[in-house]
Fold this protein.
Amino acid sequence: MLEAKGVPYKRTDLMPVVSKGALRAVGFPGTTVPALKLDGRKIQGTGEIARELDRLRPEPPELVPTDPQRRAAVEEAERFGDTDLQEPVRAILWWALHKDKAPLRSYSEGAKLGIPIGLALKTATPIVALAARFNEATDENVRRSLAALPAMLQRIDEWIEAGVIGGEQPNIADFQIAPSLRLAMTLDDLSPAIESRPAGQLALRLVPDYPGHTPPVLPPAWLQALRSEAAAA
Ligand SMILES: N[C@@H](CCC(=O)N[C@@H](CS)C(=O)NCC(=O)O)C(=O)O
């Protein structure tokens, strides 16, 4: 979003779980990333950041459309990205990493943590266990999440078709949806069902480089709905 608005920035990455305390320590009121310091103010959350950037640089491209009808459609897709889509993708990822921690290093590639990646990875065991707990990465929830994915991918494709997202200038909904899709595509179990459809193409365009790779790890029976959907597509 900062790049779309032409605002120069410096990025810092935080380890999951540790991020909650680290944000408080540097004076942010909440515990979630993304978190931005802008002209001495602290702004937190993708939506807040987008709206503040639009206030700061009102000239196009708009992240949140001003046209009321268009704004309503984009904000509906934004909410979907922030909750319906993001939560299951995170549950699936943390379930996979809890099962096998080996891929974790790949997700840290290029991270600007301020400490060596090898050192950060020494804390992996408790971090993964806590992240799995915070993201409700239980068998039951992951099965439910996988079963819900085909309908969600369909919904995203429809929004692209209708021009709500996927335009030349990405909006707030593009920025909420594409990164979660792209994260899902780092799992070999999920990417075949996503990559060739409009949703997957959008994710690849907006987030061409996303660190991380998880080889197949999910029980095939849990992937049935997703696989038949991919075959039909
Ligand atoms: N899509 C969200 C992401 C916010 C979020 O849930 N961030 C997670 C990491 S992806 C986080 O910081 N979790 C820590 C917590 O919930 O305390 C946004 O709009 O800002």
